Amino acid sequence: MDEYSNKLDSFLFPLVSEINEPVILELGVQNGISTKKFLEICKTKNGKLYSVDIDDCSEVVNDQNWKFFQTRDDNFEYIKSNINKQIDVLYIDTVHEAKHVKKIIYGYYSIVKENGYIFIDDISHLPYLKNGTRNNFYCEINNKETFNCLLEIYSENKDLFDLNFSFYSSGLAILKKKSNKPLNICRNLKTREHSLKNILRKIWKKMKKD
Asked: Is pTM, for the whole model, over 0.85?
C-alpha cells in the first residue's frame, strides 16, 4: 500500500465510515484512489459521492452512487445547484496553494452539515524540504503556506470548527464543523517572531551559549 492510500485509510476513511447515508463532495479525482474508496463507503452506508475534476475522469468508475462533474472546483454555483443538498464530507485535493484552498473552504463551508468534515490534503512541507525524501521547492512552499493559512482561518473561527492535523506523508488537515454560523474573515496571525523582544532574546541566548 502506498503512502497516499495508507494516509487516507488511517486518518480519513475511518471518520467517514461512521456517517450514515453520507453525502460526499470530492474535489480532485486523478487516478480514482480516493474515489473508489469513498464509493465503497457509500455502498455500505447508502451514500452518494459527487466528484469534480477539470480533466475527464468519467471513466474512472461506473457506479450508480457516483456523479462526476468535469469543471473547475471553484465553479461554486454550478456544483452546488447540481448537488442541491447539504454535504457531510468535503475532500479538497486539487490546487495545493493557500489562496485557492482558502477560496474553496469559504466557498463550500455553508453547505457542509453541522458535525460534517472538511479534509484538506497536502498540508505538510516536511517531505519536500531540500534534504527531504521528496525535495520539491514548489510543494515545500505551497504546503507550508497552506498550513499557515489554515491556522489563520482557525484563529478567527475557533468556536465554529475543530482542526486537527496528520503529518504522515504529505499531511492531512481534518476540520470538523461545530456550528452553522458563517465563517469569520481570517487575518494574518500576529506573532512576535520578528519582534524586537524576540531578536534581543536570540542575542541573549547566543551570548549565554558563547
From this structure: yes
